[in-house]
Amino acid sequence: MSARTSPARVFVARLAGTDVFDPLGDRVGRVRDVVALVRPTGTPRAVGLVVEVPGKRRVFLPLSRVVSIEAGAVLSTGLLNVRRFEQRATETLVVAQLLDREVELVDGSGPAVVEDVALEQQRNRDWVVTQLFVRRLPPGRGLRRRRGETLLVDVAAVRGLGSERAQQGALALISTFEGLKPADVADQLHDLPASRLVEVAAALTDDVLADVLEELGEEDRVSIVSGLLAERAADVLDLMQPDDAADLVSELPTARATELLDLMEPEEADDVRRLLAYGEHTAGGLMTTEPIILAPEATVAMALATARRIDVTPALATMIFVVRPPLETPTGTLLGVVHLQHALREPPHALIGSFLDRDIEPVLPEDAIGKVTRLLATYNLTALPVVDADRRLLGAVSVDDVLDHLLPDDWRDADADRTDEAMTRSAHG
């Protein structure tokens, strides 16, 4: 619907994900949220859009620069401000903070949940919130939360829309995460206010939350795990890569860390405790205890099937570590490695022990990150074996874990150019 017609009405839930175009018709980004000014009294006013541009950067597009909002397209007047969007205290994100919020209907019929928000452009070209699509909450709700009657009401027909103490679900916001990679979901969570961050994270499934925690910065993931029930937090830690779980546990207060380790599955907790014993910037502190490990009698078909497992990261999938039994870390003697690319050239029935690469130099758990980095770069590898003095495999260090420790501590939160500048300074000493 063109912004020049009067009134123009747009529903925010449908607007999220819409492509944004410049006057030449080139796509410049995608709408992620709407920024509104919501007060306890008075009509809420929308002031801009949060637009995700290439590089996953989120920027602010004032609605005064929007020419039209139509099905599948938002047309802007010109270049976007490329500075990263930072929410102000007076601003409310409609998708992240209003959808699924519990409000009270002023006619006395009880509580309802906001499922969509309608914006209309006024004659002075301002955009205001005029109506809400809500779902009544029936008595004795719970699992029946979404089965109540739906209705479209004027914004003045509800109380509590601007209340900071209002209850709020997370279904609408989580639905916008569909199809996103864990790192992108982590970016969206990071942009939420602290209290909302914990609420939304807690509503994710355990496996999704585990993946997202591996991508979040220290402050955010500590806040989330501290806000979860201990049993739930332990279940999520069980699903994380052992090295990431160990990093997270090390950031928690001692009492909370001990509590969670005691609640974790014994095998997973043992892996985490073993990793916690090593220094942060050593091979032992960087490694995961769950690389691909097979016996020399395994076939190529078995090796490829193992590499295809969804829980194996791309960096670790490129290398199979071949050992004598036992096959759980710490294993028997490391015999060598099989590169995935080499395995693809062999017949499925071939035994992987027949074409081992025995020249890969392993590292000891106490070796510094500098040695690990040099070996990865020198031999163009994505992973290295970590062994003890008896050449038993303890784990593997992957290139992505090394990068996490070489980048600045706040690299997940920093703009791309600031991170590049910090890395350049680091490279030049």
TrEMBL record:
SUPFAM superfamilies: CBS-domain pair (SSF54631), MgtE N-terminal domain-like (SSF158791), PRC-barrel domain (SSF50346). It comes from the Bacteria. The keyword Lipid biosynthesis does not apply. Transmembrane segments: none annotated. PROSITE patterns: CBS. Keywords: CBS domain. It comes from Georgenia faecalis. Residues 356-414 form the CBS domain. SMART domains: MgtE_N. This is Magnesium transporter MgtE N-terminal domain-containing protein. The keyword tRNA processing does not apply. It holds the Pfam family SH3_actinomycetes. InterPro entries: CBS_dom, CBS_dom_sf, Mg_transptr_MgtE_intracell_dom, MgtE_N_sf, MgtE_transporter, PRC_barrel-like_sf, SH3_actinomycetes.
